[in-house]
């Protein structure tokens, strides 16, 4: 029974030792990826040294093996449960002091060597009691040495092992990246929002009466209104031109020649978006359009009701009399 | 970003060209027809200012090309008119995104505080307004994202202001001519 347990513990110990070595290597590789080969050499050397130490400890005797066994068992069991980064420390403090898991990697590495020595001591003690186990342990140490040699010689195997380990860590790293990915998403989202707010600021400058409104929805509302008012103004102006057009046709080039001269003059006045005098008085786009409608009402009165001008029927009736007479005069002069 | 005088002059030149082309329809039809022709020529002139670099101008050119292909071709002479007219504006289908959004909605519906509710409401309103803006700006439904939409809106507003300015000054000049 004791034998079995002892062998079990040995296997555990060997396993943990190997795992310690490998994990150390992996960790070192993880932290210093450039020094792969040298590290491999160093680690194999260290394992050799440990083997030698183990030989030297053969003569020493152990007293409380079962306690140690229990400790190692708990250590190995705990190793099964906890994450790989903490194994070495847990193995070091096999007596159950798991609070020190939180040590950083450098400490872990340094403790890892100590852990190996401790393990070797325990192995030695066990081997002192049972010779068979000693043989087995020798074999195991031999296999360890062989393994280390193999590792030294077969760099490809070693690298593949390490890459496997690294893949493990890489997976963790990718998971970390997944967190980062969401972070980058949020960064992109923030950049997009900044862009939008910048455009909104420009629009605020461009659209009159928009600078007093806070909030995106209100601003969008105002922008929509402004664009629609501008579109309606174009509609209205083209209508007006259509009404005046027979005359324009006659001396269109004349007017254009005049306009080319006069257009820069109108643009030199920065704030008069609407050069027309009655439009300048009304500072708001809606009012502009409405005044446009008012302005256009007389024409609607003149033209027959079946005309598509009925869309201008808003604000019917109360047109300024001067415009009324004006446009009527205009129309009578045109003879439409 | 007020409309510049150079932009106005260019627009005037283009518009004059367009008016020359549509003159027959101006001469011998009723007011509404004339108005339509004038507006079309003005729109094409405005759209041709951008030389097809913006989404709204391309959409406007395509729309007016269905009404008066010859006019558009003439005004756009020099610019690759054919490619602009025949260029298919592809509406991007974002079906998968909708599906994702729907699934998100379902998951979110379970736990919602008052502030989240308000934020969702504001978001919905902004979305609605954005859709409204899309319908107002020509070719707005082809603009894939909000940033592009706002950019195009900026450009469109400046162009519209140019158009309105020039047209207004022309109308004023014509009226002054008549009053004399």
From TrEMBL, chain A:
Q: Key word Transport present in the record?
A: no
Q: Superkingdom of the source?
A: Eukaryota
**Known InterPro entries for this protein?**
bHLH_dom (IPR011598), bHLH_ZIP_TF (IPR024097), HLH_DNA-bd_sf (IPR036638)
Q: Which PROSITE patterns match?
A: BHLH (PS50888)
Q: Where in the cell is it found?
A: Nucleus
Taken from the record, one Pfam family name reads HLH
Single GO cellular component term: nucleus
Provide any one GO MF term from the record: DNA-binding transcription factor activity
Q: Which UniProt keywords apply?
A: DNA-binding, Nucleus, Transcription, Transcription regulation
Residue ranges with Polar residues bias: 134-143
Q: Where is the composition biased (Basic and acidic residues)?
A: 144-163
Q: What is this protein called?
A: BHLH domain-containing protein
Output the lineage of the source organism. Eukaryota, Viridiplantae, Streptophyta, Embryophyta, Tracheophyta
UniProtKB/TrEMBL annotation, chain B:
Listed under GO cellular component are: nucleus
Q: Which PANTHER family match?
A: TRANSCRIPTION FACTOR IBH1-LIKE 1
One function term, GO molecular function aspect: protein dimerization activity
Q: Which organism is it from?
A: Thlaspi arvense
Query: Which keywords, in A-to-Z order, does the entry hold?
Result: Nucleus, Transcription, Transcription regulation
Q: Which InterPro entries match?
A: bHLH_AtIBH1-like (IPR044549), HLH_DNA-bd_sf (IPR036638), IBH1-like (IPR044660), IBH1_N (IPR059002)
Q: Where in the cell is it found?
A: Nucleus
Give start and end of each IBH1-like N-terminal domain.
5-65
- Please name the GO terms of the biological process aspect recorded for this protein, alphabetically: regulation of DNA-templated transcription
Q: Which Pfam families match?
A: IBH1_N
Lineage top rank: taxon: Eukaryota
* The name this protein goes by in its record: IBH1-like N-terminal domain-containing protein
């Amino acid at each position: 029974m004791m034998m079995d347990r002892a062998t079990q513990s040995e296997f555990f110990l060997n396993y943990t030792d190997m795992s310690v070595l490998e994990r150390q290597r992996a960790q070192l590789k993880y932290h210093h990826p450039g020094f792969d080969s040298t590290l491999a050499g160093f680690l194999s050397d260290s394992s050799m040294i440990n083997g030698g130490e183990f030989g030297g400890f053969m003569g020493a005797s152990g007293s409380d093996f079962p306690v140690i066994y229990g400790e190692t068992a708990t250590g190995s069991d705990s190793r099964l449960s906890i994450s790989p980064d903490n194994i070495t420390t847990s193995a070091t403090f096999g007596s159950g002091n798991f609070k020190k898991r939180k040590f950083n990697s450098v400490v872990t590495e340094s403790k890892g060597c100590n852990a190996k020595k401790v393990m070797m001591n325990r192995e030695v003690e066990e081997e002192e009691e049972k010779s068979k186990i000693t043989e087995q342990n020798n074999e195991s140490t031999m296999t360890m040495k062989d393994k280390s040699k193999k590792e030294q010689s077969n760099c490809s195997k070693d690298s593949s092992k390490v890459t496997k380990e690294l893949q493990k860590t890489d997976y963790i790293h990718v998971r970390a990246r997944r967190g980062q990915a969401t972070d980058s998403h949020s960064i992109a989202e923030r950049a997009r929002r900044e862009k939008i707010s910048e455009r909104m600021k420009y629009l605020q400058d461009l659209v009159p009466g928009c600078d007093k409104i806070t909030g995106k929805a209100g601003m969008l509302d105002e922008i929509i209104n402004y664009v629609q008012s501008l579109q309606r103004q174009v509609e209205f102006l083209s209508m007006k031109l259509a009404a005046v057009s027979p005359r324009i046709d006659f001396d269109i080039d004349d007017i254009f020649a005049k306009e080319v001269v006069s257009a820069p003059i109108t643009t030199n006045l920065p704030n008069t978006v609407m050069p027309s005098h009655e439009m300048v008085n009304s500072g708001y786009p809606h009012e502009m359009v409405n005044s446009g409608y008012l302005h256009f009402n007389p024409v609607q009165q003149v033209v027959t009701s079946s005309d598509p001008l009925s869309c201008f029927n808003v604000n019917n009736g109360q047109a300024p009399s001067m415009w009324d007479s004006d446009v009527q005069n205009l129309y009578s002069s045109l003879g439409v | 970003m007020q409309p510049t005088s150079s932009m106005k002059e260019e627009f005037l030149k283009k518009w004059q060209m367009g008016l020359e082309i549509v003159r027959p329809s101006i001469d011998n039809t009723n007011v509404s027809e004339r108005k339509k022709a004038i507006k079309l020529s003005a729109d094409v002139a405005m759209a041709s200012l951008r030389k097809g670099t913006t989404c709204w101008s391309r959409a406007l050119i395509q729309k007016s090309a269905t009404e008066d292909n010859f006019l558009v071709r003439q005004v756009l002479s020099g610019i690759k008119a054919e490619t602009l007219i025949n260029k298919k504006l592809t509406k991007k289908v974002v079906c998968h995104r909708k599906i994702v959004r729907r699934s998100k909605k379902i998951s979110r519906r379970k736990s919602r505080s008052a502030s989240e509710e308000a934020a969702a409401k504001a978001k919905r309103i902004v979305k609605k307004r954005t859709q409204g803006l899309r319908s107002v700006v020509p070719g707005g439904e082809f603009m894939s994202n909000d940033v592009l939409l706002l950019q195009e809106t900026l450009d469109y507003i400046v162009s519209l202001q140019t158009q309105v300015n020039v047209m207004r000054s022309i109308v004023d000049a014509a009226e002054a001519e008549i009053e004399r």
